[in-house]
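Consider the following assembly input.
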Amino acid sequence: MHGFLRKVLYYAVLKPVIFLGFGVWVRGRENFPVDGPAIFCVNHNSHLDLMVSLAICGPVHRKIRPVAAADYFYANPFLRFISNHFLRIIPIDRTQNPLQAFLDGCSRELDAGNVVLIFPEGTRGEPEQIQELKGGVACLAQGYPDIPVIPVFLYGTGRTLPRGAWLPVPFRIDAFVGKPIEWKGNREGFMAEIMGFFENSGQQVNRPISTPK
Amino acid sequence: MFELGLRAGFVIAGVWGFLVAATLLVRRKKAANPERDYSELSQRMTSWWVIIGLLSVGLILGKMAVIVLFAFVSYLALKEYLTIIPTQMQDRMVLFWAYILIPLQYVFVYHADFEMFLVLIPVYGLAVIAMSMILTGVTDGYISRIGTVYWGLMMTVFSISHLAYLYVLPEPGGPVTGAGLVLYAVLLTQFNDVSQYIWGKRFGRRKIIPSVSPGKTWAGFLGGMGTTVVLAALLGPWLTPLSVPLAALSGLLVSVAGFFGDLNMSCVKRDLCIKDTGAMLPGHGGILDRVDSLTLAAPLLCHFIRFFGYLGDR
């Protein structure tokens, strides 16, 4: 039942809203894998980031399991229902040993052949500004060196629906999908590669943006 | 449903025939020179098929479909414009009101309310944009912020909606239909673009204004103008209420306005240091790259046709 409803929502609501309503210019779409397991590493500015990732990644969208904070996404019964049955989040309890909870939750999904979607910045932060990346994804990659880690950079979602806003004001969204980042045995180097991809993509969005002073 | 009219129907069929011939020609060229790269040309052809396909379906379905189609074009164009200009976070509400004006503008097209259609953006839009911009409370860059939003509305909503307004100009039942007028405007502007390009490519030497666009030459401009005037004189008396000389004059108008509309978008892009406004139409760029010539030509042609064709002897 939920599977059917999910399909209807995906093709009849999510895809038209994202592609016709906002519009996405995807570069590197071919870098998405056709099947799991995989790890998607996405920069985070807006609630739209997850929706856009789901809409642009093709058939593998069925396998996506986003890592999300339990205190936020389980805040009320309605949100909990949506989070469990439609977004299918990997809930992380941030109050006690979040790294262990993160690794356990992700391992379970990767072992099941699913795609773990991680926002390594942790929170949405200021619109269109990259924050420091957290190292959890490197720990995960260390445990699964053969699973592809795909970096995805999104621009425009933070302008369209920034943190704290309830009304989306449409702008075109730019998406950059990178080639898989290989685990070469060192966490700092791994995180630097992801950050490098984000920054490099950010420069290719050849559009000026200014944030309030 | 049957508002298309026989004449517009024939012209649509002719355009499809023309596209089929062009597609076959590109295919043959490709087969003859396999070593050359024709990917941009093929992409352009595919985009033309989509544009002409959507327009034909809209015109066959009738008024509502045409208005929704052009409202959507305005929406995409405004969104693309707001995406490429430097907008600031605190101006979100201003941009929200700019978007709200699109459906309103097209509602007045639907009801053929010419006065409201004309004043919505210059009068009410002017006030709403100014008020919401003042309420942001930010004075830094106020003039350029309010200027860019307002200019964008004029270029993408006010001007493109004139194309849709052509559809509601004629009384139903006559040999001249709204579909015919829309076709006339779209065909003239797009044909003018293509023929200026071809004349320029073939004979162009002396550049007109290289600091804006190195590709614009006198030969392209004048050759394109001549071709467009001939096409207008041939199609005008059939698709519009204009006589042959007036139709030729409208061709001249479209050619000059189309030329400057094209350069207008080039200036915008050069100012922002970007090459294309987007990637929605493969081979062309963004939607603004395709409708650029319409931004000045559509309002002028709409008024020309209304003035000489529908106001009679006043």
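The CA atoms of residues 70 and 161 of chain B lie 7 Å apart. Ask yourself how this observation constrains the way the partners meet.
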